[in-house]
Amino acid sequence: MVLVGEVVSDTSPEWHIVPTWRNVSTDTGRATVPGVTDGMDGMDVRERRHAATRDALLESAIELIDSQGYAGVTVEAIAAAAGVSRRTAYRRFRTKDDILLELPRRWLRIYDEALAAHPDVVGRDAVETASLALSAYIDAHRRETLVGLAALADSPTLASTTVAHDAWHRRVVDVLVADGWDAVDAQLVAGAYLGGIDSMLAVWAPDPDRRPLVEVNRRLHERLRSIWGD
After folding, report:
1. Which residues sit opposite 6 in a β-bridge?
2. Could you identify which of 66, 91, 104, 199 might form a hypothetical disulfide with 164, taking C-beta atoms 3.0 to 4.6 angstroms apart as the criterion?
3. Which CATH number describes the domain made up of 38-96?
4. Can you list the positions of beta strands (E) in 28-114?
5. CB under 8 Å to 189, separation ≥6 — which residues?
6. Residue 60 — φ and ψ, nearest 5°?
7. Quick one: which H or E segment has residue 19?
8. From its phi and psi, is residue 175 left (phi > 0), alpha (psi between -120 and 50) or beta?
């Protein structure tokens, strides 16, 4: 998931996005999304060092995969590009697939932090607010996202995994149940909503014009109003 200015919806807080990239083809910068941190709040020095190593390995993997393709990249090459030893790389990640799965894990952390930043926003509004925050992050890290999505699709192992999808489903269900929804209804609506999100990404990623994902996400939210029982 290019965005300038602010994203405002009738039911969601404003997200002011500060782009730090200059060119999508060379971007490795980060954007600031209110309520979303670098994921290191509350960590001690050792935990911060480990998190920084994981980030470095993921970012090096994205660079190498972009230039060489997923099949042509090894954990050893990723470790060398990140400036860490092979042993350190294998301590953080068991396989190359596991390194790439750090990308959807990062998205989950961003989603969680967006929810935590607005504890008074509940139910559908909470789901949509966190989704827009993540879309804003993806807009500001477009290259990382596109390379990662392509690699995830190219790997037979990763393409068949349901780990990330199950984690998203649990999060949406938990938000709705906390707002008083019946558990079965929450599961059905979460499945329908995430199906819409999957379709949104499938339409957005190959689009040569590639509008801001936040814009596409807001359009999706408008189309999905009926599933919430409004």
Report:
1. 16
2. 104
3. 1.10.10.60
4. none
5. 172, 176, 181, 227, 228
6. -65, -40
7. none
8. alpha
Q: HSE of 183 in the Cβ direction (CA atoms, 13 Å)?
A: 1
- Is 56 within 8 Å of 82 (Cβ atoms)? yes
Q: How far apart are CA 171 and CA 134, in angstroms?
A: 14
Enter the tokens of residue 168: 């998203």
pLDDT along the chain (230 residues), means of 10: 30 32 32 46 75 93 93 94 94 91 91 94 96 95 90 72 75 96 96 92 83 94 89
**Euclidean distance between CA atoms 218 and 74, whole angstroms:** 38
Q: With the CA atoms of 177, 108, 141 and 116 taken in that order, what torsion angle do they form, in degrees rounded to the nearest 10?
A: 60
Query: How far apart, in whole angstroms, are the C-alpha atoms of residue 96 and residue 213?
Result: 28
Amino acid identity of 85? S
Which letter does DSSP use for residue 147 in this model? H
Closest by Cα among 169, 106, 138 to 33: 138
Buried b (16+ CB within 10 A) or exposed e, 202-225: eebbeeeebebbbebbbebbeebe
Q: How far apart are CA 115 and CA 81, in angstroms?
A: 34
Angstrom distance (rounded) from CA 100 to CA 103: 6
Q: Which helix (H) or strand (E) holds 111?
A: helix 102-117
Let me know how long the chain is: 230
